[in-house]
């Protein structure tokens, strides 16, 4: 069981697989007023940076589930590096439908809401693991600027303008799902650069190390086209944030 290979290549050096920076991840942890011993479930936990740093900084305990064996392995190593391997557990697996045995204080899906068919399904899924009064975290893109045409939306790698909301509409949509939005931390363009531009050096180095790989032509094409596409579209039009929700 694995994610498409391109992500395991382009994001192999990422600690955070979305446009939030380490500083903003720390801001989010502080903003949530996490208490020592609080339990956090993270569906699509990537390389585990959120759980590991919050375990280190706030004493939380947690479980992360991710479909990439590579990212899961990185998460386990990061937990050892930060001295929190006894606080956090990382499971390689499909997070679709995953409900924890014990209810948690925080149930998160940061940048992987497709695992439950979108935001509504993910809120519903996370709520099944949540203790009464707990917090749901959703990481999701939104339109920072509404694309003027469908082609511009496609340039942002969306299927259509309708894939995402504007920020006010996204916040309103959480209300329609029966949630109060109680905090948010938004990425900025510098954060997008750390997520997207970091892939370019990783691709370049991978190409140098794997010239004969059957996938090399795809990676070469992506490295050639991505900087311009990203600067013209994603960087200009797409926002991204983590939203903390409490059920009404
Ligand atoms: C955009 S990344 C976000 C990772 C992490 N939350 C972070 O912010 O660094 C999406 C993650 O979802 C994982 N993923 C994709 N489909 C999945 C699934 N069905 N079950 C579990 N993880 C999945 C990917 O391997 C990837 O790590």
Write the layout of secondary structure elements.
Elements: H1 5-10, H2 22-31, E1 39-43, H3 49-58, E2 61-66, H4 69-81, E3 88-92, E4 104-110, H5 119-127, E5 130-143, H6 150-155, H7 167-176, E6 179-186, H8 189-209, H9 216-237, E7 238-247
Parallel strand pairs: 1-2, 1-4, 2-3, 4-5
Antiparallel strand pairs: 5-7, 6-7
CATH architecture of the domain at 5-144 and 164-187 and 239-247: 3-Layer(aba) Sandwich
Beta-strand content bin: 15-25%
Our count of helices gives 9
Largest sheet: 7 strands, mixed
Structural category = alpha/beta
Q: How many beta-strand elements?
A: 7
The mean pLDDT is 97
Q: Could you name the CATH topology of the domain at 5-144 and 164-187 and 239-247? A: Rossmann fold
CATH evolutionary superfamily of the domain at 5-144 and 164-187 and 239-247: Vaccinia Virus protein VP39
Radius of gyration in whole Å, from Cα? 18 Å
CA-CA gap between termini: 37 Å
Shape: globular
Name of the top-level CATH class of the domain at 5-144 and 164-187 and 239-247: Alpha Beta
Strands of the biggest beta sheet: in what spatial order? Answer: 3-2-1-4-5-7-6
Bound molecules: S-adenosylmethionine
Low-confidence stretches: none
Order of helical and strand elements: HHEHEHEEHEHHEHHE
